[in-house]
Amino acid sequence: MTSQTKTRPASPARGRRFAAFAFLSPGLTYLIVLLLVPLALVLSAAFFRRGRFGGIIYEFTTENFTRLIDPLYLSVLGNSLKIAGITTLLALLIGYPTAYFIAQLPRNWKTIALVAIVLPFWTNFIIRIYAWIMLLSGPGIVNSVLGTQLELLYKDGAIVVGLLYSYLPLMVLPLYAAIERLDPQLREASANLGASAFTTFRKVTLPLTIPGVLTGCLFVFVPSFGNFVIPDLLGGGKSIMVGNLIRTQFLQARDEPFGATLTLALIAVLIVLLMVQSWAARRA
Amino acid sequence: MRRPKLLHVPFWATIVFLYLPIAVLVAMSFNAGESAYTFEGFSLKWYGELLADERVISGLVNTLIVAVSSTAIATVLGTLLAVGLARYTRSKILDAVALMPAVLPDLVLGIGLLMLFITLNQTLGHHSVILAHAVFSTAFVAAVVRTRLTGADTSLEEASRDLGAGPVTTFVKVTLPQLTPGIIAGALLAFTLSLDEFVIAFFTIGNADPTLPIVIYSMIRFGVTPEINALASILLLVSFTAVIAGQRLTKIGESRAQD
């Protein structure tokens, strides 16, 4: 094979095109059939009428969108944005110093610290939520330790804690990757030129790690925003998020067109965020 | 390099935040009593109950079948995709498509795939979960491998091509060895995400035997018992072993790539 390629140096452009096809087509075909087509199915359903007993009647309508701007549903979207936003912000505030600390450790300790951060993420997601049910519920551990009878579960705060607990490692890892890749000489140069630690951080470290920050925020915000399991188990359905609403439309109300419309709204929010992210990453 | 001392605080706070719930969870799995809230003495009885629980054992087997199969598909597709995107195209649209499953909420993907399988009149089962899991896993493998590619020095690949090697030879002999740590890391990530995945499996499994996360979800909805704690503790032990093994593999990969 090697000798063949050596003796027959085909036109580089043709070889390149063949290579592009060979590398790209399997994955892209897979993603078109099992990602883009399903998305198209969901989104097209948003423009159809609901059957009387569930299902879809293929008749064009915009009534699903009229229903979407009902304050009831808008407040659910707003609530989801708020909860996911607070979670992301907290994850960044906790995650950045943590990642920075790990990046400064000696090589062996780095590995151990990273493993320690990631390990809970490698345990089952549902079980991690279960741990918080144990801690926060009425007869739970927190109340028995504090000797209180607080209702900690079924509040927005419980959802934020659950989301943060679940997705914090997704913030720390890209931040760590970005910080670790920094050349320490840059910071040393900045310090030698008289910059304070804070100035060095603000002018050197932070701008150079912005791509990691953006990736981490995206990794935390997206699963938080569209989540339905955590608000289901820790929020008790009281402070419902858009994920709960979508699930209910598809599995209980059997209103697939409206469920699809809510999904469309959710995707729209995420597309805006992605655009902001890629715009900011290009500027950084 | 000087290390700011204050950074100890957020790091250790994070560690406590992450491990305290787990520690409580494990401690309660050894509870002799019936409650997961009050400790009434040491016992291993819940582990015995767990091993006798057929739902759990079959759930575990199903989860492993799904995770191994979907990771195998995703590692191949994701690696090729990463190289293709990094070296052979500048298309932003293709970039976005490749990243989309990683950033798309699992709920959207689960519902979309459910609608696809129904539209195609496909029966649901483990095969549909495998196909579904490979979608997001491919994106994660591609993303992880790509970080490695964009950081990598292209001069070796250029040298290989200047010396007359075709794209395939260059890929196998030059690019792939450099990528090995990334591929292993990507595959491990895909495997773990699949083991853990609940939402998409929930929507695409139909009436087939449930995977472990679905089993656990129904157990939790049924009530809080130390049996779930015992199961959690065992999964924790398995995860820990897997992470250590993964770390070792990655290290070996890295030292080989540096040689």
Give an account of the 3D structure.
The complex is a heterodimer of chains A (284) and B (259). Chain A has helices at residues 2-7, 12-45, 63-68, 71-104, 107-118, 125-136, 141-146, 156-181, 184-192, 197-225, 229-234, 242-252, 256-283, and strands at residues 48-50, 56-60. Chain A has a two-stranded antiparallel ribbon with strand order 1-2. By secondary structure, chain A is an all-alpha fold. Residues 1-7 of chain A have low confidence and may be disordered. Chain A contains 13 helices and 2 strands; from the N terminus they run ααββααααααααααα. Chain A folds into 2 domains: 11-60, no CATH class; 71-283, MetI-like fold, CATH 1.10.3720.10. With 259 residues, chain B is mostly helical. Chain B folds into 2 domains: 21-52 and 224-259, no CATH class; 62-214, MetI-like fold (Orthogonal Bundle). Helices cover 78% and strands 0% of the residues of chain B. Chain B contains 11 helices and no strands. Chain B has helices at 8-29, 45-51, 54-87, 92-103, 106-119, 126-151, 155-162, 167-196, 199-204, 212-222, 226-258. In chain B, helix 3 packs across helix 10. The radius of gyration of chain B is 22 Å and the shape is globular. The two termini of chain B are 27 Å apart. At the A-B interface, helix 1, helix 2, helix 4, helix 5 and helix 6 of A face helix 1, helix 3, helix 4, helix 5 and helix 6 of B. Chain B: Pfam families: BPD_transp_1. Chain B: It is a multi-pass membrane protein. Chain B: InterPro entries: Bact_Polyamine_Transport, MetI-like, MetI-like_sf. Chain B: It is found in: Cell membrane. Chain B: Keywords: Cell membrane, Membrane, Transmembrane, Transmembrane helix, Transport.
